[in-house]
Amino acid sequence: QVQLVESGGGLVQAGGSLRLSCAASGRTFRLYAMAWFRQTPGKEREFVAALTWTSSPTYADSVKGRYTISRDNAKNTVYLQMNSLKPEDTAVYYCTIASSPFDSGYGSWGSWGQGTQVTVSS
Fold first, then answer.
1. What is the pLDDT of residues 59-105, one digit of tens each?
2. Which of 25, 26, 55, 116 has the highest CB neighbour number within 10 Å of its CB?
3. Where is 20: in which H helix or E strand?
4. Alpha carbons within 13 A on the beta-carbon side of 7
5. The pLDDT of residue 58
6. What distance in Å separates the CA atoms of residue 35 and residue 95, rounded to the nearest whole number?
């Protein structure tokens, strides 16, 4: 079982920034794609961003130009830099890791962390 721990959430005013971190353990990190999702109570979990093992990013249309996903393989950590935050960005943010290494696991997500709350005030 891969262990994922998200951190960095908090309260921020609209227009502000946060950087989320997700520390991974339990498998070889550098060869796996990673992704961020978010969820609001009563709504389905929503895709936010993903990063291949070669650091090619994909973003949801709602966050393009504002969010940046990156990874530091030396620290087994993936980041989500969130700029120009809006109230609609309020959610619990979760990270996940691909179920298999290289490209084969991309889009097939395995373990999930506990999430970190992001709240953006008007």
1. 999 999 999 999 999 999 999 999 999 999 999 999 999 999 998 88
2. 116
3. strand 18-25
4. 4
5. 97
6. 6
